[in-house]
Amino acid sequence: MPVRPSLPVAGQPQPERADAARNRQKIIEVAARLIDEKGAEQLSLDEVARAAGVGVGTVYRRFGDRCGLLRALIDEHERRFQAAFMNGPPPLGPGAPPAQRITAFLHGLVDRIDQQQALFLALEKGGSGARYGGPYRVYRVHLATLIAQARPGADAGFLADALLAPVNANLLCHQRDERGMTTEDIKNGLTDLATAVTSHHP
Question: Which of 96, 111, 190, 200 could cross-link to 90 by cystine, CB 3.0-4.6 Å?
Fold first, then answer.
C-alpha cells in the first residue's frame, strides 16, 4: 500500500492560545510585507519583531530561526500542493499509472517553486537542513512509493533523491537566466528523466 505520511509542512503550528495565534499571524504578515518591500534576502528576525511589535525572543521561540520563519511563509501553498498529489485528481493524484504520476509530480513541483521562488531561494541558503527537511521528506517518500510500484526491486529511495535533485530554486533560476531555458524546456527534460528512471531495464 502507498505510504501516507502525515504532512510535515513547514511551520505547522500546534494548538495554541488565542493571543499566541494572533502573534504568530501578525509575525507572518509582517514578514511577508517586509519580503515584498525588501526581498527575502534582507529578512531579519530583529526587524520582523520590531515591525510586529513583539519581542525578538517571541519570534525565536515561535519559529526557531530565520529558516523556520521562511518555512512558515510557504506553509499554506505547501499544504495545497501536498493535498493535490496525495488526494487530488489524476495524474498528479491517485488513479493514474505510477510513471504518469511521477512526471506530473515533478512538473507540479516546478510550478510550486515558481509560486514562491524568492522564498525558496532564501530557504535553500539555510544549508542542507533547510533543503532536505520538512516537505522534502514527504516528496521523497511519495516518489519512492511510486518508483517501487513502477520498478519493483529498484533502489527507490536513491532514485527518488535523483529525481528531486534537479528541481530546486537555484538550479531552475540558473537554467532560465544563464541557459535561456523555458519552463516548458525544463519540464520536458524532467519528463525524459522520469521516463528513464521508471523504464524497466533488462
Answer: 96
| Partner residues linked to 94 by β-bridges | 96
For 18-64, write each residue's pLDDT tens digit: 777 888 888 888 888 888 788 777 788 899 899 989 989 888 888 88
Amino acid letter for position 100: Q
Q: Please tell me the pTM assigned to this model.
A: 0.75
How many residues does this entry show for the chain?
202
What is d(CA 62, CA 11) in angstroms, rounded to the nearest whole number? 9
> What number of other Cβ atoms are within 10 A of residue 191's Cβ?
15
Q: Are residues 98 and 176 in the same domain?
A: yes
The contacts found for 41-48 with CB under 8 angstroms, 24 or more apart, are 41/122, 43/69, 43/70, 43/122, 45/69
Take residue 129 and report the three cell numbers written for it: 537542513
Q: Answer yes or no: is 122 within a domain.
A: yes
For residue 124, give the nearest of 116, 135, 132 by alpha carbon. Answer: 132
The C-alpha cell that represents 38 in the structure block = 525588501
> Nearest to residue 170, comparing CAs of 106, 118, 130, 98?
118
Distance CA 190, CA 164 (A): 10
CA distance 30 to 69: 11
| Encoded amino acid at 123, one letter | L
Tell me which amino acid residue 106 is.
L
pLDDT of residue 181: 97
Q: Are residues 151 and 60 in the same domain?
A: no
